[in-house]
Design a protein that fits this description.
single chain; 175 residues; Aminopeptidase; seven-stranded mixed sheet; 4 helices
C-alpha cells in the first residue's frame, strides 16, 4: 500500500469533510471509542482551520484521502496539569490533534503511518517533544500511541464533560 502524506489544501475540504462524516457514521453504529459526534467534532471547520494554519496533513492512497492529522503548537488547557518529561514552551513541542482514519482502512497501519509522519516532521523541524491527549475509553488509540513509543503522563479533565467525555490521558514522546 503506497501511502502519500502531504499538506491538506482547500480543494481537499469536501473530501476531508466526507472522511470525517464517514468516520462519525461508523462510530455511531459501532463502538464510539473517541466519543466523537457528527456535526460536533471533527467538522469541516476543523479541517478548514487546519488548512488555513498549514498544519493539517492528509494521507492518500490512489488519490483518495483515507486519513488526516493536525499538528500544531497549541495544547489544550488541561495540559498544564501534566508532569511532562520535556519542560519548555510550545515552540519546540508538537501537539497531535484530530487523528482520523477512514473506517475502510481500520487496522491497516494508517494511524501508525500518520504518527510516524508526525515524528519525522517533528525531527525535520527541530521539535523536541510530541504530546497528545486521548479519551480514556479510546482503547484502540491508546494501544496505537503506546505501540508508537508514547509515554503515559497523567489523566486530566479537558472540560468536555458536557459531551460525556470527562477524563483524557496525556501522552508524550521525546524526539
Amino acid at each position: 500500500m503506497d501511502i502519500k502524506i502531504e499538506h491538506g489544501v482547500y480543494s481537499d475540504l469536501n473530501e476531508i469533510e466526507n472522511l470525517y462524516n464517514d468516520l462519525n457514521d461508523s462510530l455511531e453504529v459501532g463502538v464510539n471509542y473517541p466519543g466523537w459526534k457528527k456535526g460536533v467534532y471533527p467538522t469541516r471547520n476543523n479541517a478548514k482551520e487546519g488548512i488555513k494554519n498549514n498544519n493539517l496533513f492528509i494521507a492518500r492512497i490512489n488519490n483518495k484521502i483515507i486519513g488526516s492529522i493536525i499538528l500544531n503548537h497549541n495544547p489544550e488547557k488541561g495540559y498544564s496539569y501534566g508532569k511532562w518529561k520535556y519542560d519548555n514552551d510550545y515552540t519546540s513541542i508538537l501537539v497531535v490533534h484530530t487523528l482520523v482514519v477512514h473506517p475502510s482502512f481500520f487496522k491497516k497501519g494508517i494511524g501508525y503511518k500518520l504518527m510516524e509522519f508526525a515524528e519525522n516532521y517533528g525531527r525535520r523541524n527541530n521539535i523536541k517533544s510530541i504530546r497528545l491527549d486521548v479519551y480514556e475509553k479510546n482503547i484502540p488509540a491508546i494501544k496505537l500511541y503506546e505501540r508508537c513509543g508514547y509515554t503515559y503522563i497523567s489523566t486530566v479533565d479537558l472540560g468536555l464533560e458536557s459531551y460525556g467525555l470527562k477524563w483524557f490521558k496525556l501522552y508524550e514522546k521525546l524526539l
